[in-house]
Amino acid sequence: MNNMDNKAVNAVRCLAIDAIQAANSGHPGLPLGAAPFAYKLYADHMKFSPSNPKFIDRDRFVLSAGHGSALMYSLLYHFGFGLTMDDIKNFRQLGYKTSGHPEYGTPGVETSTGPLGQGIANAVGMALAESVLAAKFNKPGLNLVDHYTYALLGEGCLMEGIEYEAASLAGTLKLNKLIVLYDCNKITIEGNSDIAFDEDIFKRHEAQGWNVIVVECGEDLDAVDAAIQKAKHSDKPTLIAFKTVIGYGSPKAGSASCHGAPLGLDGVVATKKALGYEYAPFEVPQDVTEHFAKKIEQHEKECAEWEKIRDEYKKKYPDEYAEFEKWHEKPVIEDTDDLWQFDSAMSTRKAGGVMLNRLAARLDNFIGGSADLAPSNLTGLKDVGDYGKDNRLGRNIHFGIREHAMAAICNGIYLHGGLLPFCSTFFAFSDYLKNAIRMSAIMNIPVLYVFSHDSIGVGEDGPTHQPIEQLAGLRAMPNLKVFRPCDARETAAAFVSAYDGGPTVVVESRQDLPLIEGSGRKALKGGYVIKGDGECDLCIIAAGSEVDLAVRSADELEKTGIKVRVVSMPCMEIFDEQTEEYKNSVIPRNVKKIAIEAGSAMCWYKYVGDGALVCIDHFGESGKANKLFERYGFTVENVVDTAKKLLQK
Ligand SMILES: Cc1ncc(C[n+]2csc(CCOP(=O)(O)OP(=O)(O)O)c2C)c(N)n1
Questions:
Q1: Per-chain mean pLDDT for the chain
Q2: Which pLDDT tens digit goes with each residue over 364-421?
Q3: Which of 20, 30, 188, 439 to mutate to test the pocket of ligand 1 (most atoms within 8 A of CB)?
Q4: How far does the centroid of ligand 1 lie from the alpha carbon of residue 30, in Å?
Q5: Which residues are bridge partners to 32 per DSSP?
Q6: What is the Cα gyration radius of the chain?
Q7: Topology classification of domain 337-513
Q8: I need a labelling partner for 626 at 20 to 30 A (CA). Which of 140, 170, 386, 594 fits?
Q9: Class of 522-648 per CATH?
Q10: Is residue 1's pLDDT more than 90?
Q11: Residue 108, exposed/middle/buried by CB under 10 A (0-12, 13-18, 19+)?
């Protein structure tokens, strides 16, 4: 082993443990054990440009085991990504780039990680995106897109169900430029991983269509090097298991107690002694700095090579290059009338299908699919083919029945750059996607989630398939737009605004819904008066299929001389962001209010004050949809009755 490499590995290790010690919090086990192969990867394999962390053809690296963030920051520091020593010294402190877990936005961090298993599924999405862009843009002898996606994980990620799903799809799709580095130390928080996880991970991955390489000694940099080299030539995704010792070099090496607790000052000193790297906290010796500087120079040169390819490509294929650039820009959906054109009653899932196709026709990089429910979600894109191992240019992705991975893969597709992903399933199963949706919201990335079968309107499938609390749950999530449109035109609003910010969820009906007079572009304000914009005695606020009920109830109440306003509220989050003046002009302060929605009442209290609620706070039942609506009070009769009682109060 080259001495300088060895010293550099220890530099990576020791900066990480110094940072953890200063913070008196963090996870030293992984950085100490995984540093050799992580260093080798960054030093001699990955293609990246520290001066331009967003270099378009860079290899992607995902620290799926996000608790090992100190390793990542140490690597980013040494490889010159712009983290300062001050950032390292202030690991996990407010206002620094070295947050507890890696956060998207820090130069060199491709995705936020922390919830185990999300990162590896993100990496599958990134590798998938690379395969699409390579197939679309590469020309003979001119590979504009040609990079790998690496992910680092431990037993934690491997135990998560999402990893099983993601690995299974990656194998099926033969995403051979995905290389997963497994820090095989057989330790998790509660002890030896065998206590809960003794399956043969290697055979499992082989069965899932992976190439598996085992490196018996993770300390052996030559073996590490050879394994990564081999993986790069695989025709399948590769899992490289590096057998390591958690907390290598520390007094607690090999035990779970060094997974997530600082080593203590004495522990740090003892570790450095054992490693033969006895420098003061945060001290980086000159020869180490020079060594990394050389590596950085090599990396920059490699990226400069790509620039030559790009220049030649640009000259030979100006149109394709212009398109390549366009795909990497923020999408603009020009709001033209044809997007809003709907002439008849239809389910909002059907309208959603129309809108998906309208977007697909305008955005050539719009891609996505469903978890085996496309014929029910109505999310198939027409005439653009299916994505698969033999057709990287197809735009319908069959995610299979893998909801957890599907959503996280979409995050990865978006984060890679170049593509705009959507995914879909029944709304009741949105819970399976929830952590990935949360990650989209935390990262503020515009992944589009299309959920059909929005309520008890599903009918016969019964309570397992009838969402109740899902709307309240997702509406409670910060930075997420949840649309529940009342008709086809409001569905258009959801899709038209899908790229205005972070993620969007569209919740669609199974059953047909009439076009409501007055619906349309106003929905872009989140909530608006759909009927009765003058003085009123009562304001009914509703969303989705219940807007029609609100309108019919208002008609009935007006016959008795009660003036009613109906507010349609397709997207609370957008409405809540409007000016006070606008909001008060829509929902008058001084009149009684009723909210109607076939879902949990929780999110409606903020609008109705001491008014009334026609909602559902219990699970549904199997039966015909109209019978269920009737049973739970979604009738004109009940709304009229509720209104009269409220007005008499
Ligand atoms: C979804 C999720 N569940 C639980 C945790 C808490 N957690 C963080 S690390 C860890 C154990 C990880 O073990 P391993 O991947 O083997 O890492 P190592 O012990 O080698 O550092 C757990 C349970 C988490 N971050 N995410």
A1: 97
A2: 999 999 999 999 999 999 999 999 999 999 999 999 999 999 999 999 999 999 999 9
A3: 188
A4: 10
A5: none
A6: 27
A7: Rossmann fold (3.40.50)
A8: 594
A9: alpha beta
A10: no
A11: buried
C-alpha 618 to ligand 1 mean position (Å)? 35
Residue whose C-alpha is closest to residue 126's, from 38, 63, 60: 60
| pLDDT tens digits along 528-587 | 999 999 999 999 999 999 999 999 999 999 999 999 999 999 999 999 999 999 999 999
Q: How far is the CA of 371 from the centre of ligand 1 (A)?
A: 27
Cβ neighbours of 224 (radius 10 Å): 24
Give per-residue pLDDT as tens, 360-379. 999 999 999 999 999 999 99
Roughly what angle, to the nearest 10 degrees, separates helices 403-416 and 430-443? 20
Please state the atom number of ligand 1 nearest to the C-alpha of residue 27: 21
Q: Where are the domains of the chain?
A: 3-301, 337-513, 522-648
- Measured in Å, residue 143 CA sits from the centre of ligand 1 at 38
pTM of the model: 0.98
CA dist 323 and 36 (Å) reads: 40
- 34 CA closest ligand 1 atom index: 20
CA pair distance 543, 509, nearest whole angstrom: 11
Judge: domain 3-301, CATH 3.40.50.1010.
Answer: no
Closest CA to 587 of 516, 539, 520: 539
Ligand 1 atom nearest to 256, measured from its CA: 19
Structure tokens at 438: 């949360």
CA distance 335 to 521: 10
User: Atom 18 of ligand 1 has which residue's CA nearest to it?
Assistant: 188
CB 353 within 8 Å of CB 380: yes
| Cα(229) to centroid(ligand 1), Å | 28
Question: Are the CB atoms for 528 and 522 separated by under 8 Å?
Answer: yes
Q: Give the pairing of strands 448-452 and 420-426.
A: parallel
Q: Which atom, in ligand 1's list, is nearest to the CA of 155?
A: 16
> Which residues sit with their C-beta closer than 6 Å to ligand 1?
27, 29-30, 65, 67, 114-116, 154-157, 183, 185, 187-189, 246, 259
User: How far from 633 is each of 334, 496, 516, 630, CA to CA, in Å?
Assistant: 41, 33, 21, 5
Of the candidates 38, 36, 29, the residue with the CA atom closest to the CA atom of residue 10: 36
The reply to whether domains 3-301 and 522-648 share a CATH topology is yes
The residue whose CA has the least distance to atom 9 of ligand 1 is 67
| 550 contacts 460 by C-beta, under 8 angstroms | no
Euclidean distance between CA atoms 239 and 202, whole angstroms: 8
